[in-house]
Amino acid sequence: MIIIKKGSQEYFRLQDTGDPTFTPYHQEYAATGGGAGELRISRSAAVRLDSEVQNNTRALRLAGRLHQLAVLPNEGLLFKRGTTPLAELHPSGDLYTRGKLASTLPNPGSNGSIGWTSAVYAAPGLDYTGMVAPSEYALFEAPTPSYETRTIDISDFRDVLPPSYAWPFDATAAPINGILRIPNGSGPFPIALFVHGNHSVYDNSTNGYAYLLELLASHGIIAASIDCNFLNGAIYGENDSRAIVHLEHVRQFQLWNGQAGHPLHNKVDLSRVMIVGHSRGGEGVGHASVFNGLASVVPDPGDPPVPLDGSAGLGPYGFDLRAVVAIAPTDSQYTPVTGRTTVHDNYFIIHGSRDGDVWSFSGYPTYDRAHPVDLADPTRDANGLKSLLWLIGGNHNYFNSVWAGEGSPTIIRAEQENVAKVYIGAIAQTALLNRPAYLNMVRDHKEAWNNGWIPGSIELVSQYQDPCRLFIDHYEHATPAQPSPPVTGTLTAASMSAAEMSLNGSATNDIYQETNGVKLTWTASGGRYTVQMTGGLATGHHQYLVVRTGQSDDAENTVGVDQEFNITLTDGAHSHTVKSSDYVRLPYPAELYNGTRRAVMQTLRIPLRHFADHNVDLAAIQQIVLAFDEPQIGTSTVSGSLYLDDIQLSE
Amino acid sequence: MDKPKIKVTGVEVAPARPDAADLRKIKHYAETRSKELEEVTLVFKIYLEALPEPTGQAYELFIGDHLVRKYGSFDKGIFFTVNDPDLAQTLAGQEICFGIPGQKELLHTGIRIPKGEIEALGMKATGREAGASELPIKLQVLSQ
Question: CA quadruple A402, A406, A407, A413: dihedral positive or negative?
Answer without folding.
Answer: positive
